[in-house]
Write a structure and sequence with these properties.
By secondary structure, the protein is mostly helical. The radius of gyration is 29 Å and the shape is rod-shaped. 71% of the residues lie in helices and 0% in strands.
């Protein structure tokens, strides 16, 4: 009867790797977004930025003194 010799350091490191991979997989499932979702969010953000930029006053209008007319 021969027992398998196990290097405890290697076994511990292997378990840590497996735990990290499980955590990473859980995070990908929980926080990950598909490419379509990322693209939709990017398009929405760009649209909102254009709307905000369209409502900004020009620098020329804001720098004028009221007595310049």
């Amino acid at each position: 009867m021969s027992a398998e010799i196990v290097n405890l350091r290697q076994a511990r490191k292997q378990k840590q790797r497996q735990d990290k991979e499980k955590t990473a997989a859980d995070n990908r499932q929980k926080y990950g977004r598909s490419k379509a979702e990322r693209d939709a969010a990017r398009r929405r953000r760009e649209t909102l930025e254009k709307q905000v930029d369209g409502h900004l006053l020009d620098k020329a209008e804001t720098s004028r003194d009221p007595g310049d007319d």
